[in-house]
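Instructor's aside before we start: the two examples that follow are unrelated to each other. I chose them only because their records fit on one page, so don't look for a connection. First example below.
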Amino acid sequence: MEPLRSVTFRMVLVLWYLGVLSADVVTVRRGDPAVLQCDADPGDMLLAVIWKLRLYNSSCVILYKIEEDNTKTSYSSCSTRMRSDHLSVMINNTEISDEGTYTCEVVNDNDTVFRNFSLQVLAQPSTFLKLNSDGSPECGAIGGNPPAEISWIPNSDYIVTTKLEDLDGTWSVVSTFRKSGINGTSVTCVVSHPTFVNPWQEDIALSFGYKLRFDIILRLIVTVIFTVLFIEFLLYLKINCQNIPGEQKNEDR
């Protein structure tokens, strides 16, 4: 099953494309700063800017208001990494938990303008390809957001892929190609992710190590046995050759 957060984000994108939800999709890498900018008519008198954040696992509000005496007040229940500067919200050192919908309400002396943003924070996964304990190729993409997509060359019905959400909000994807379904001597794992310029891929050869080691040991044992037998045979011939002249001398006497 596809992760709920990934499905929700895609639903936001679909609604945006259909025009049902007017939202600007903003994508940023984890750790980088993000800036969300609202629009306003410079000719209007700005009274207040209200940011309503509906994040993955929380919600908060940022308020910037100009009072009647022209004094400016601000309020925030959001992370200290987020601050408002008139019409914008700046997020320092973005984290996966910052993902969500950001709605700004710009209140002026004529109207109230709304604008929606959908923020996605990308995290690049680390990849690996190895043989697991039973000799089956196992490919993984750890710590990514959104979850990485893993495919195999060749494709097969013997592939099992799992996706798990980590405590920090990233995803670990592990795909196993059961060796019973592999006909060739090697397979290729392909990992796709928005943070990769090109898909990551790597080949791995199937290990017949235990069979090879057994064959080597067997050949070694057979070689040793034949060598011992051959040496014993040579010793036997040598001993017999040495005894023959002595027996002939005894017979002459």
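Example two begins here.
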Amino acid sequence: MRRVTFLLRPSWIILAVIVAGFAYLCFSVLAPWQLGKNTSTSERNQRISDSVDAAPVDVTTMLGQSGKDTEWRRVTADGEYVPDSTVLVRLRHLDSAPAYTALAAFRLDDGRTVLIDRGQIAAVDGTRPPQIPAPPTGRQHLEARVRASEGIVESKPPVTEDGYRQVYSIDTVQESTVLGVPLTPIPTDARGGYLQLADKQPGVFTPDPLPQLDAGPYLSYGLQWLAFGIMAPLGLAYFVYAEIRARRRERAESAPAEPNSPASAATESPAPAPTSTPATEAPLPADPDSPAPQPKPVSNEARLADRYGGTRR
């Protein structure tokens, strides 16, 4: 049990809390966020794909119904534009240049009024709106697609500049208040929707193109977050295992050798006594025929000591 008591140190506890929190975020927030975006994008692409070949329906048949799976549906609308109902949406882009989206109210033959997106028009000098042509008068037959409201930017309320009412998003409820006209939301979600004109329709400018039918990288991102959530605890377990192995190796290296081990026997065996020549034995006389002993060569260190008066060692 003492081998894992180091896990109770503050550094290990903090590391464990960080890893657990990261894994929790991966499984409960980050992965579901990306997988949810992949699901919604796939559903949108399917609706757009289905609407391409589907015949348009009268928009009045959709009013008052459930808004599920109605966005991007092709519809027709018969009626006339409401005079003096132009509203501009700021901060749009046309061919990567600043632009405005022109909105207008359209009164149907049955008396209900819907919001129309007439398309985008380039800004003058990139800063101000051009002169917006009024939509055609009289009865019109329009073809459009149903779009969901974008919501309201709370920090950016509607303004009136350069002679036009301007907003920062397309929202049926907000534009109804700005125009002072009761707009009927087309059912798509809680805030309703509006109609986006198709190309070559009466009163249209440059319509927004259809999104590319690409699911995007959201599925791979979601799977990556799931993998990260699994790898983080596994990485912590590996570090714990490595720490235990390192501590075990340190204990083995610092432990004293056992008495019966070969190492201890080698260290405890007495050294053999040196052999000496008895004092009574006289040295043998030198052989006259043997060559005289040669003097030992003087080392360079001794030679330098003799020359400069150093101490020979």
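The mean pLDDT is 83.
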